[in-house]
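Worked example

This section walks through a single chain of length 689. The input is the sequence exactly as stored; nothing has been trimmed or padded.
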Amino acid sequence: MRRLITLLSLALPSTALAGSVTVGAGGDFASVDAALEGTDPDEPLKVELLAGDHPAFSVTKAREILVSGAMGTTTLAGLTVADAGASVQLVGLALQDDGGGRTALVDLQAGALTLDGVQAKGDGGVAGVRAAPSTALTVVGSLLYGFEDSVIIADRAMVSVARSRIADSEAERGAAIRAVETELHLDSVVFAHLRAAQLGGAVLLDQGSVSATDVELQDVRAQLGGGFFFDGAAVNISDLTARGAYADKGAHIYAFESELSLVRADLRGGRAEDGAALYIDGSGVRVQNALIIDHAATRRGGVIWLERGQLDLRQATIFGARAPDAAGLGIAEGQAVVRGSVLAGLSGEAITLIGDGAATIRDSLLWAIEGSPWLDAAVGVGPTQMTMDPRFTNTAAKDFTLRAGSPGLDAGPLGTTDPDGTRADLGAFGGPLAWALADVDGDGFVHGRDCDDNDRLIHETAVDRPYDGIDANCDMRSDFDQDRDGVDAVEFGGFDCDDTDPRVRPGARETPGDSRDEDCDGRVNPDLDRDGWEASLDCDDLDADIRPDGIEVWYDGKDSDCDGASDFDQDGDGVEAASAGGGDCDDTDAQIHGLMIDATEDGKDQDCDGVDGPGAGAEADAASSTVVEGRSATPGSIDPDMAELATAAPDGEMTRTGCATTGGRSGGTAGLIAGLVGLLGALRRRPRA
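Given that input, the structure is written out below as tokens.
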């Protein structure tokens, strides 16, 4: 720590520089080298570069120097610092190589150097800044871009980059920063549009340590570690944002035999062959409060691939990952523990074990995961595992906070609390280290719990007034469904005819005799079997297959169409089928039954006596053709003199009770035929003339 303070003090400008000179056309000196030679070497020096292009200069003596210029009008070709006691600061000017054959635009061989508000542009394939062992490099508020080698190369140095952007560069390894055994500090740094042919699209750290906060990766790629490649390093990163990272392995981070702590990370759009977000090889990795969205691997590990090592994943939200094998987390060797997390929208298993891998998941929530099972069968599952809809605030808008009513709110995993003091939520926005969500309207309810954070009267415990169109309590229910039965009131375009009683709604069961229309079908009488016919019109309101418009199924003992007719008289001739104990041997033809006359051989047994034409009843058949007073009676006709006798026969009586039929089956037709048969018998007994 003492060495760090000393080096930082060397990197900062003096509050009282003794000498102040101008350099350039019309200035005190023609060049910075001349100013260094022409001023007291034991005194601090302030140099103002006048407009124009200035050659590179070298600092070879222990001295405190500040060189400034006007951005856009002043360009410096390079700088070399070669004395351990030198402290140089460049402020507000442009750095650009003049093609003089330098290997680096800035060569920090010894001492300390600060670039403050500088724009450094690569040209001619040179590196940006080389920091030799025991040097201190500080970059503040600067833009470094366009290099064809690493922008910063450090070897056993201390490098601090803050509020700066390193972009549009490429290298074999570590396009932004390539460091060996270096102490690296990053604060509010953007790495954008960087390419490394081998390792570390943005940063390669071999040994050493890195402390980073508020770092952003944009469109970075490499063969291994599209964003960061750590080899044997101690790494602490907080508030990492990544958009668009590409690699064969580890699109955002490749950790090789390192110790990595990643807290509050928003990672999106990673693409890799293995490990679309992280690739862990022989490392111990802890990830807490990570939001990992829309990742894809072409082979294994749609989110994380654990080749070897340990993974502790806490309170993460993982959504929309896919891979042919291990859509979420894949473990080859080593062990993973997942706690207090939400995994949803995956194209396959959330956790897959391969080889000797082991994993445990507890106090977490899984939802909308394709395939079965959701987890590898060998994964240890804790007792508080949930498989429920997490109810994200708005997945279309990529808002994965939990809204009111989510089962993940206040779930309390790990026994912790959220920044607002409530019990910890599941996922990336839960726990003491989570992002502090905003409470814009100051009603005490943060984003997610408050569906309108611009109105103090709207939050999850507010009183909701029905029918005003405002979801005041953020329960996401319809404001036009006062009784909460799932159906809007008819007054507001719904179908609930009484929106004050949850027992009254379409589909509810009617209660007989209560004079209420519980199912809102417009009828007070119940329709118990739900066949569309109320009880007063339905001859059996407990059987939906029996109703006035039902289809009659013959001989099943049911009056399915409620017409009151016998179910055993299909042809309606008044005589039931022989199969049901009646006298009709063909119940599909109304002209065939036991009361008909079969006088001729026509191929039909009309009287069902088993003989076509006169048979067992031959005497009666013969009588049917006897001439009576000059007239004959033939089947199908009745002599006028016989009509009076025939019609005098009493009709059968038919009454209905529900669907059952009682009384005579044949009605008036049976009475007429009975009278006719009696008359024919009398004629047989009359003596012939």
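What to look for: Confidence is low (pLDDT under 50) at residues 1-17, 616-689.
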